[in-house]
Design a protein that fits this description.
The complex is a heterodimer. Chain A is an alpha+beta fold. Chain A has 18 helices and 23 strands. In chain A, strand 2, helix 3 and strand 3 form a beta-alpha-beta unit. Chain A is globular. Chain B has eight helices and seven strands. In chain B, helix 5 packs antiparallel against helix 6. Classes of the chains: A alpha+beta, B alpha+beta. The interface between A and B is large, with 77 and 77 residues. Bound molecules: flavin-adenine dinucleotide, iron/sulfur cluster (SF4) and FE2/S2 (inorganic) cluster.
């Protein structure tokens, strides 16, 4: 442990230095930490388990896993989701695969190597001990999910098939066609429904969490709104798990499902939880660019396209010629030029940053000059159209569907799109937040991915948290509470929370301004892409903060939400989410402005060497976990990061 | 392009509902049906009226949340394509698009284009799962699964739960949905032990809300996941199998 840790001074207005946080990481060798911790956990007698009520918010991979596993153990689980069915959680959309350090092949994989890849991939801003747990439990995740119904791809000999993914040199990614997330999610949702059938889990669909109830310093319940009837009610429990997913949609255009949002996590922050690294966002380099006013999202195109597609822009700015009319010597294949070793296959953050740089310099292409070409002309010449169709046919079709353009004759256009949030609710090694009794799992949390998530590691983290971490750590928290009754439904703190949620709904409906919530969401997205996007500067962030504050003020005077609060009202749902995004966005910019270094996806233009991210391990080898007391202050708490197994190094892709 | 929209409006389950006509004159061929609804809603909101309620989430054809009837066909004119991927290039400038909820006795209308498809989940809850507890599964590599079998399981596992098959069926049958799940789980080692029990439970629950199958085949034609029509025969095969064997596996 670092004994003399000093957090750098705050230079951003409103930022105060908070405490040094203890991640409760077991002392000693991180390789055996999880085993030792499990041994130390307290147990609950099977007969006593049903006396404990646990609320789980979210039924994605993390939430469905946690709820089903705790239900199987015999706890009284109450699960909530705003979806109409658990199967629809955003996890369903993941395509590529799930990593596991099963190390069956002789390609020299191991849990240690998994940890090295994960920690390095995250640019040394994640927790090493958590990465070990992730690797260790990954073995059981595959076994379990295969057993409960995920038909993983198989080799001809009947063994599990694997493939390689970006950022690693071994083959540890398990998959089911391009539908890995779907199959894991459906298997998990079925397991959850099995527990509903068995009576151990009470599932409430179409219920959105609006607030967290904290009493005696412990999380003891939630306030939810029934989306069909508008009824707002409180539910109390001995512990609460938030598995509510990532907040990439704060950018409006993102690869996430339209309904994914930040509200549950943000409400927890308002009740005292801390938000770790809120500005660490992964931008995917091969998202579809925004081409028209009514496009609703930036669909993800598979990373695999970069194996054969060549990325380029016109060499001179504001070139409006059709791509076919631009001669070879007037094109800039900038990735091949700058990174001869990796070429078009540089990691996500590097590819995104370089595309951004070209677009900023006026060399972007397409009607809005906001994209770069991904060109298959040479590949088609080399191997023939048939081969390319075999490799990417369905992706080309999807592209044509979305854009009306034919990538066989015209280069594709791609652009960086907000994709994954490495940041999230700060929790200790046991996945417990700074509010005792409030646990977190999946993308809503923070620990594993540091400043840049490795492809196929996030389905894994959601599954490990849900199935193989929370079912150990939550009971250990509950054990000493045996005999303690649940908070009464009419306790003053509960009715206050209900009143607060009702008042907020009424306030949103009462503004009666001129713009719907989507209008503000779009504006916010533009501000964030510009100010807190792929590349950040002191100036861009300062401007973004001013603009967000102004937009926020406008929101609360110019918003218009039509309809009532006593039946399905999707505008009202959106309005509540956008209100939270506005507050979260400000904190994201403050975090990015505060962190005077570049690491992974957090690229501050002031901190670079030869165009590459320049980490400052002397000052910033810690996680910023933000407290937002609500009085205009932002308190930066810090958890120092120590690396015992993976020596600090700089990444290099030249 | 300019399109006339006839959209179903219904305030709540008790309301009788009616079509409302709107014109969108800045639609583009690459927009999807749900983006057309976004566009429509933005102008409805500008006019100070309540937008049309409809469901969608991933907008990538995988979550199964979208699902409306377009010109009398679940999801829309293109076969095997979910609403969020139905492009406006299917219509010509000046044409009319009629959008209404998925229609089935098993799907009560919640509001406008939103229906309640929870009857599908009730079937899964009744038996569409595998009774293996977390941590107790055998090593997935020691139980070999034939490559072709795994691929076949995936063909059937691909169902996105949109419910269009039921809406397309003149009988309101859910056989494509149920058969896909039965076949998927029966093909995998983990699911084999409860094969008979599962079939009994799921089919009994299915018959509570959904109609019988007369092999019209409309379901497979609209199914965005391309579930093979063979799934409907699976239901009867599994039903017979459990009756004849009288065992749980
Ligand atoms: C297009 C795309 C492709 C991806 N591909 C991969 C991949 O190949 N490999 C990989 O490892 N990762 C991938 N990821 C990332 C990965 O899919 C996610 O990180 C992961 O699925 C998140 O799971 P989760 O359980 O944390 O959250 P989610 O699946 O997002 O679930 C969140 C749940 O919380 C509920 N919820 C949220 N807020 C509330 C509230 N206030 N009240 C009630 N319920 C609420 C929702 O209804 C939902 O049930 C991809 C991501 C995207 C966007
Ligand atoms: S079988 Fe096809 S149409 Fe029916 S619910 Fe599944 S995906 Fe939808
Ligand atoms: S919105 Fe998810 S399938 Fe159409």
């Amino acid at each position: 442990m670092t004994t003399e840790f000093h957090a750098p001074d705050a230079i951003v207005d409103g930022v105060e230095i908070g405490e040094i946080l203890d991640g409760q990481i077991p002392d000693g060798d991180p390789r055996t930490a999880w085993e030792r911790r499990r041994l130390g956990y307290k147990l609950v007698n099977p007969a006593n388990r049903r006396k404990f009520r646990v609320i789980v918010i979210g039924t994605g991979l993390a939430g469905a896993g946690a709820a089903a596993a705790l239900g199987e153990l015999g706890y009284d689980v109450h699960a909530f989701t705003y979806h109409d069915a658990p199967r629809r959680a955003h996890s369903v959309a993941a395509q590529g695969g799930i990593n596991a350090a099963r190390a069956r092949k002789v390609d020299n994989d191991s849990v240690d190597r998994f940890v090295i890849d994960t920690v390095k991939g995250g640019d040394f801003r994640g927790r090493e001990a958590d990465a070990f747990r992730l690797g260790e439990e990954s073995v059981r995740v595959i076994d379990h999910l295969a057993a409960i119904g995920a038909p993983f791809a198989r080799e001809y000999g009947g063994q599990l098939a694997t493939r390689s993914f970006g950022g690693v040199q071994v083959s540890r990614t398990y998959y089911t066609r391009g539908q890995t997330g779907q199959q894991l999610q459906i298997a998990s949702a079925q397991a959850l429904l099995r527990q509903v059938d068995a009576g151990t889990v009470t599932l409430r669909t179409r219920h959105e969490m609006l607030d967290l109830v904290v009493e005696d310093g412990r999380a003891q319940g939630v306030v939810v709104r029934n989306l069909l009837t508008g009824e707002i009610s409180a539910h109390t429990a001995h512990a609460v798990v938030l598995a509510t997913g990532g907040y990439g949609n704060v950018f409006y255009f993102s690869t996430l499902a339209k309904n994914s949002n930040a509200s549950a996590a943000w409400r927890a922050v308002q009740r005292g939880a801390l938000l770790a690294s809120p500005s660490f966002i992964q931008f995917h380099p091969t998202a579809l660019p925004v081409s028209s006013r009514w496009q609703s999202k930036t669909i993800l195109m598979s990373e695999s396209l970069r194996n054969d597609g060549r990325i380029w822009v016109p060499a001179k700015a504001d070139d409006t010629r059709a791509p076919g009319d631009i001669p070879e010597d007037e094109r800039d294949y900038y990735l091949e030029r700058k990174y001869p070793a990796f070429g078009n296959l540089t990691p996500r953050d590097v590819a995104s940053r370089n595309a951004h740089e070209q677009i900023q310099a006026g060399r972007g292409v397409g009607p809005l000059k906001n994209s770069v070409y991904l060109d298959f002309r040479d590949a088609i010449k080399r191997v023939g159209k048939k081969k390319i169709a075999e490799r990417y046919g369905n992706l080309f079709e999807m592209y044509t569907h979305a854009t009306g353009e034919d990538p066989y004759t015209e280069p594709m256009r791609i652009a960086p799109g907000a994709h994954f949030t490495m940041g999230g609710l700060w929790s200790d090694y046991d996945q417990m937040t700074s509010v005792p009794g409030l646990f977190v799992g999946g993308e809503a949390g923070w620990g594993y991915h540091g400043a840049n998530r490795l492809g196929a590691n996030s389905l894994l983290s959601a599954c490990v948290d849900g199935w193989f971490t929370l079912p150990y750590s939550v009971p250990s928290y509950l054990a000493p509470l045996l005999g303690t009754s649940r908070l009464a439904d009419d306790a003053p703190v509960v009715t206050e929370a209900v009143d607060r949620a009702e008042a907020r709904v009424a306030k949103l409906l009462a503004i009666q301004g001129e713009h719907g919530p989507t209008y503000f969401h779009r504006e916010l997205g533009d501000i964030l892409y510009e100010g807190c996007g792929v590349v950040r500067t002191k100036e861009s962030l300062t401007t973004a903060i001013e603009k967000i504050r102004a937009l926020s003020a406008r929101f609360w005077t110019e918003l218009r939400v039509l309809g009532d609060d006593d039946r399905l009202n999707q505008e009202l749902e959106k309005a509540g989410r956008v209100a939270d995004y506005l507050e979260l966005a400000e904190l994201m910019c403050i975090d990015a402005l505060d962190r005077e270094e570049s690491c992974g996806a957090h690229f501050r233009a002031e901190h670079e060497a030869d165009g590459e991210a320049l980490r400052d391990d002397n000052l910033w080898a810690f996680v910023s976990a933000w407290g937002v007391p609500g009085d205009g202050r932002f308190v930066r708490h810090a958890e120092p990061l120590n690396f015992d197994a993976v020596p600090l190094t700089r990444r290099n892709y030249k | 392009m300019r399109l006339t929209l006839e959209v179903w409006r219904q305030t709540d389950p008790a309301d009788a509902g009616r079509f409302e006509t709107h014109v969108v004159d800045d639609a583009t061929p690459e927009m999807s049906v749900v983006e057309l609804l976004d566009r429509l809603n933005e102008s409805i909101v500008e006019d100070g009226r309540e937008p049309v309620a409809f469901e969608s989430d991933c907008r990538e054809g995988i979550c199964g949340a979208c699902g409306v009837t377009v010109d009398d066909r679940p999801h829309g004119p293109q076969s095997n394509t979910p609403s969020c991927h139905q492009r406006l290039s299917s219509w010509k400038d000046g044409e009319t698009v009629r959008i209404e909820p998925l229609r089935s006795g098993a799907y009560p209308v919640v509001r406008d284009l939103v229906v309640d498809r929870s009857a599908l989940d009730r079937i899964v809850r009744a038996g569409g799962h595998v009774a293996i507890q977390a941590g107790t599964a055998p090593d997935a590599d020691t139980t070999a699964v034939d490559h072709a079998l795994a691929e076949m399981a995936l063909d059937f596992a691909a169902c996105i739960g949109c419910g269009a098959c039921v809406a397309a069926c003149p009988n309101g049958a859910a056989h494509l949905f149920v058969g896909s799940k039965l076949q998927h789980l029966a093909s995998l080692p983990g699911g084999k032990e409860e094969r008979g029990k599962r079939a009994r439970a799921m089919i009994a629950e299915m018959e509570q809300d959904f109609g019988p199958c007369s092999s019209f085949g409309e379901c497979a034609d609209v199914c965005p996941a391309g579930i093979p029509l063979a799934a409907i025969a699976v239901v009867n095969r599994e039903r017979m199998r459990v009756v004849l064997r009288g065992k749980n596996n």
